[in-house]
Design goal:
53% helix, 79 residues, three-stranded antiparallel beta sheet, Arc Repressor Mutant, subunit A, single chain
Length: 79
């Protein structure tokens, strides 16, 4: 069920733009994006499967591909 650039949901774009400023914990993302725990788990797993987000020591961060998307979406002022 992976989504590609240009087909990302608004929620995934919000997660990406939030992570543009740096890594964050699950709770920090959840509080900022205002999603249920299950919904956020689903979207983060999808972003990880797409190679956009990685997790290290319980902190989520963007991959190189994620940073490219960040630059693209930050120009559109989604946040």
């Amino acid at each position: 069920m992976s989504e590609r650039k240009g087909k990302l949901s608004t929620i995934k774009i919000k997660i990406i733009t939030f992570l543009c400023v740096g890594e964050a914990s699950f709770k920090e993302i959840k509080d900022n994006v205002n999603l249920s725990t299950d919904s956020l788990k689903f979207h983060l797993a999808d972003l990880q499967a797409d190679g956009i987000v990685e997790i290290t020591k319980k902190r989520y961060h963007l991959t190189k591909e994620g940073l490219l998307l960040c630059n693209e979406y930050s120009r559109t002022n989604v946040r």
